[in-house]
Structure formats: C-alpha cells, structure tokens
Design goal:
Pfam families: LRR_6. By secondary structure, the protein is an alpha/beta fold. It has one domain: Alpha-Beta Horseshoe (Leucine-rich repeat, LRR (right-handed beta-alpha superhelix)), CATH 3.80.10.10. Helix content is about 30%, strand content about 20%. The strands form 4 sheets. A 6-stranded parallel beta sheet has the order 1-2-6-10-14-18, with no helix packed on it. The protein has a 4-stranded parallel beta sheet with strand order 3-7-11-15, with no helix packed on it. The protein is flat, with a radius of gyration of 21 Å.
Length: about 290
C-alpha cells in the first residue's frame, strides 16, 4: 500500500486556510471548531429558525463558545425553543479543583458554557421567553469547591459559568413572558461555594461570575403586571451563603463574587407608576 501523507490544517499556508474558510458557512465553522471558537457574531445574517436549530445542536457539544450574537435574524418562538433546549445541556456541573503549588493566571481559569446571548430584534414573543425562562432554571451553577496553591496571582476572573448576559430586547414580549422570566430568576441563582485562598493572593477582577447577571428587556410590551412579577423575583434572586477563607496577604481591586441579577433594562416598555413602585420596593430587599 502506498504511503499516505496526512496534512494538518495547522501546517497549511495561511492564504489557503482563508480560502477554505471563505467557502464555509459560519454554522459549519462553529460545528467544526468545537475546541477553539469563543465568540460568534451572526447579527443580521437571515439565519432564521432553521439556522438557529443548527446553532443549538452545535452548542450541545461545543464547550468553548461563550458569546453568541444573533440580532435581527427573523428568529421566532421555534428558534428560541431550540436555543433553550441547548442551554439546558450546555451548563456547569459540580467542580472540584486542586491547583498546583505554584500557579499564576493572567486570564480566566474556567470559562464554561455559553455566557452571553444576544437575541434582540427578533420575534420570539411570550412563548420564546417562556422556553428561555425554563432553560434558565436548569442552566445554573451548583457546587464549587476550590483549593488554590500557596502562591497564586489572578488578573481576571477565576470562574465564569452559565449564562450571565441575556439580551432579548425588541422581541414582542409581554406580561406573560415577563412572568415566566421572573419565575426563572427565583431559581437561577448560586447555591454553595467553598473557597480556600492561598497565603499570597492578588486579584484584579472578579473571582466568580455566576448565574444570570444582565437581563435586557427593552422595547417590549411589558406592563405593570410584568414589572410586579419581576419585582417579586428580585426579592428572591439573591446570594446564598458563601464560605471563604481569605489569605494573610490579599489585595482585591474588584468584586470577589458577582452573583444574581445585577442589571435589568426595562426601558421603552409600558410600565406605569404602579410597576415602578413595585420595582422600587424590591430594590430595598435585593441588596447585599
């Protein structure tokens, strides 16, 4: 049998690589680059529900993609349902970490699952919002136990887990969709974290970013009832107990933990004085 030469993609001339990629769709590239691609921008690409279905299937196996932009793609409730199903699989399980004695990190130690989803200016409606809300009840962090080494320096996030930013503005979402999202926020929160930090530790950013922290619902049809439901959720969507042993020499220039919803954009909806009052009341409870 004649000898066969197998050429690695990494050894091909860069001009040839570009030519190959130019002939492939973004969806094909995503499905094939399961261990490399971290951000995919498909804004205004007319992919529709069928294209979203392909993306959703890829997300069930892709463990590196963290940011997905699919603004203005004629996506309806069916596409939102497929994404929601993928988010129930693309999630974090319990983590037990023992790092080496001398370890230094200048970026994220653990970036797991899709963390940012921009699906604004589509037509997912209340049904799509409901499906995404159901996914948020499952797409969350459970338990993390970490033992860091004696000498450890971090200049960015240690853990970024589960969906943290969801933009579904301009999607014809009304009070029913807001209610479903509110119900999800009562469940989509952090449970238990146990951390032993080393003797000499410096952090210049967040240690943990977990659960949904940014929800953009601007330019929908949410009224006072939807605002009330979201307000009720904010009273429950809070941080649970965290046990942390800080080292003798510790410097932090940012948050140790970023947990629960921190940004809620409801501008240009149909919320009146009553809804605003309910949100204001909730903010008196939803605090550290």
């Amino acid at each position: 049998m004649a000898n066969q030469t197998v050429t690695s993609f990494h050894t091909l001339p860069v001009e040839l690589v570009y030519r190959i990629l130019d002939q492939q769709s973004d969806l094909t590239i995503l499905c094939s680059m399961r261990n490399t691609l971290t951000t995919l921008n498909l804004d205004w690409s007319k992919i529709g529900d069928k294209g979203v279905q392909d993306l959703a299937n890829a997300l069930q196996n892709n463990k590196t993609l963290t940011t997905l932009y699919i603004w203005g793609n004629q996506i309806g409730a069916k596409g939102a349902q497929d994404l929601a199903n993928a988010l129930q699989i693309n999630k974090v399980t319990p983590i037990l970490v023992f790092l080496r004695l001398h370890s230094t990190s200048t970026s994220t130690l653990f970036t797991q699952t899709l963390t940012t989803l921009y699906i604004g200016i589509n037509q997912i409606g209340d049904q799509g919002a409901q499906d995404l809300a159901n996914a948020l009840q499952i797409n969350k962090v459970t338990t993390i136990f970490v033992l860091l080494p004696l000498h450890f320096t971090s200049t960015s996030t240690l853990f970024t887990q589960t969906l943290t930013a969801l933009n579904i503005g301009v999607n014809q979402i009304g009070d029913q969709g807001a209610q479903d999202l509110a119900n999800a926020l009562q469940i989509n929160k952090v449970t238990t974290i146990f951390v032993l930090l080393p003797l000499h530790f410096t952090s210049t950013s967040a240690l943990f970013t977990q659960t949904l922290t940014i929800l953009d619902l601007q330019y929908n049809q949410i009224g006072d009832q939807g605002a009330q439901d979201l307000a009720n959720a904010l009273q429950i969507n809070e941080v649970t107990p965290i046990l942390v042993f800080l080292p003798l020499h510790f410097t932090s220039t940012s948050a140790l933990f970023t947990q629960t919803l921190t940004t809620l954009d409801l501008q240009f909806n149909q919320i009146g004085a009553k809804g605003a009052q309910d949100l204001a009341n909730a903010l008196q409870i939803n605090k550290p």
